[in-house]
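Record Flagellar motor protein MotB, 338 aa.
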Amino acid sequence: MENNQPIIVKRVKKSAGGHHGGAWKIAFADFATAMMAFFLVMWLMSSATPEQKRAISGYFQDPVGFTESASPYAIDLGGTPTPAPERTLNPDMSETPESQPDEVNISSDMVETLADKMERERLELLLQELQNKVEENPQLQRFKDQILFEITQDGLRIQIMDAENRPMFALGSAELQPYFEDILLAMADTIRAVPNKISISGHTDAKPFVGRGDFGNWELSANRANAARRTLIAGGYSEGQVARVVGYASSALFDREDPLNPVNRRIDIIVLTKKAQRAIEGEQGADEGAAAPAASDAPPAAQAPNGAPGDPLPADQVRQRLNIFEDGALQFDQLNNQ
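=>
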């Protein structure tokens, strides 16, 4: 029987390089991870402080002392780990004076500069508050053209000036007009919120005072400044916060081009800086050492009906008690009768 089945021959082709599967991907991933960890360590070392580097070194030298004393991590976002000398296995970690933070030396000039900056910011806030009070108070808003605020070297200056048809005082006297008293009483409520002392000064124009021969613009300006002080005290301002009351007459004109301008008649209230206050108190201390004034020369302070000085008075009683200046002279008999 004859076999006609075809013969099939299989030839296997051999190649020098074959397919090795996906093992190279795992190796490449391990390499990339190692490089990432390396650069991460380099970045941490470059950004770490010397104290953190010493802490990291101490952690690897003695992990037991660190993990049982504070944070279990070498770098803790909540704070630098602290070694535990009583539990550490490394004797060198028991004495680490170099791990103490460096002392920061601040000079007295830097402290004074920071204090002056903070004080100026406080005065600027006070200025803004006073401006807001003038804008929000309908009674004060009518006189805002007569009230000026500015920050000077000595502190916050508040200038209240006469207008042509709206004087602060009666002609030739220290009798306050009602609207001027309202302004001062409103100012007292805000100024007393800061601990700074104040200086009050009175100014007149260059027109000669017509009256007694021994009474002139110097006496008039001083009496007006003192009348403003008495109003502030009656409005609740502390008398101990008044550093100085002085009269300048026409020696410091606001409008030098026109010495008779009504704006030259004004009252200046300066919320003093600490430096200006020390300068004033130093001058006063020297003057008192030379010749101390008699206590009887000072007029008694305005008091509330209950006899307690410094308590606020109603507006009508304030006007009645404060308008005791007539013809440029202080009427002490009126004061004693009040």
